[in-house]
Amino acid sequence: MKATSRWRKPAAFRWSGCGSSLAIPMNPNASRTSRTPFVRQVLHKAKRAVGSKSGKALLRKRGEHLERSFCHVLDHGKHRRARLRGRKNLTKRQLAAAFTHNLSVLMRHLTGHGTPKQWLAAGAGALFGVIAASWAALELHVAGLTRKLRRYHFNLIDPVRIVVSGAPRRNVTWNSGIRRFSTGC
Question: What global pTM score does this model have?
């Protein structure tokens, strides 16, 4: 079990069955003979654990996960200089900040986006991607249609005029005098 460096009650580990992996700070003024054998044993194991490879790895993990995230909450949540009166109100604010940070970590782990704004931005990006893909498919469809219509000499600029391949062109007028079809219909 990881313990903080300020852990001062080694006897509390007795009932839990866990041991400390971090050095328990010792009071240099305290007499070594006044400690019980159990406390001396716990302090010796903790001191030995810190020097081991696994103890150093645990210290690095603690620095990476606990202290860094706590510092992030304090700095970016503006909690270092909280302007609240009373320990109760400060505790509420710190708990709310820790809750939102933990929720952000959980959301990032589950969805890949840590905040609702990032989630919405990703959704907007996905929507833009769908629109762009639909537009590209529509352009391909129109390009294919254009090729088919050109095969029949269909003029997209003047859709009233159709020239059938192989038919002789004649100036056929209708009632209004506008040439409609080469067949005279």
Answer: 0.40
